Amino acid sequence: MKKQETIDVIPSKKIVVGDKNAPVTIVEFGDYESEDCAQAHEVVARLLDLYAGQVKFIFRHFPQLKIHQKAHKAAEAAIGAAQEGKFWEMHNLLFANRRNLGVISLKQYAREAGVTNKKYLDELINGTYGLYVQDDLKDGIQLGISKVPAFFIDGVKFTQTPNFKNLNAYIKELLAKKSVDSKAAA
User: Fold this and answer.
1) φ, ψ for residue 128 (rounded to 5)?
2) pTM attached to this predicted model
3) Residues near 95 by Cβ (< 8 Å), separated by ≥ 6?
4) Cβ distance 73 to 33 under 8 Å?
5) What is the reported pLDDT for 151?
6) What is the pLDDT of residues 136-186, one digit of tens each?
7) Residue-averaged pLDDT of the chain
8) What CA–CA distance (Å, rounded) separates 119 from 134?
9) 24 φ/ψ angles, rounded to the nearest 5 degrees
10) 156-157: strand order across its sheet
């Protein structure tokens, strides 16, 4: 009997975009087929540019399975790409192609993102990363999430509409407060 090869998988909650030491952490629970999440994706990209070095971003998967049948497999594809350090590239491609997320397309996007793993398609078909998507879903449900996008900034649920104006104002205020707090502590 052939011994099953085990691999250590980097779960999405540990995949950080931006400066890992940034003072502000944005966590989004989202779905790759959601139009609202696609709009939020554009907002997050702008915030990461604007606050480079000050903000880090973590995307957790919360596929809305009743309305988006391909979102779960797309989330698995993103986690698979992340194993080669290609999460953000794949994440961007998935949102850009959110209406075409079949397995063969996912393999093509992975290649475009720079994934070189020869077993990538097999891993997708076999659901290698499915449990990690389920972990994100469970965490989201425990946090009371019912719709996406759902944002948490430094562990606090963001309750306003997640548009650029609202998120930018919140982050700016949070950074100002952290700056005052660090000066007071010095």
Assistant:
1) -50, -40
2) 0.91
3) 32, 37, 38, 41
4) no
5) 98
6) 999 999 999 999 999 999 999 999 999 999 999 999 999 999 887 766 665
7) 92
8) 22
9) -115, 130
10) 17-18, 55-61, 24-30, 150-153, 156-157
**Residue pLDDT, tens place only, 98-142:** 999 999 999 999 999 999 999 999 999 999 999 999 999 999 999
pLDDT of residue 4: 46
What's the confidence (pLDDT) of residue 180? 74
Residue 148 CA to residue 62 CA, distance in Å, equals: 7
Contact yes or no for 167/152 (Cβ under 8 A): no
Q: Is 10 exposed, middle or buried, given 0-12, 13-18 or 19+ CB atoms closer than 10 A?
A: middle
What are 175's two structure tokens?
């950074």
What domains, with CATH codes, occur in the chain? 13-159 (3.40.30.10)
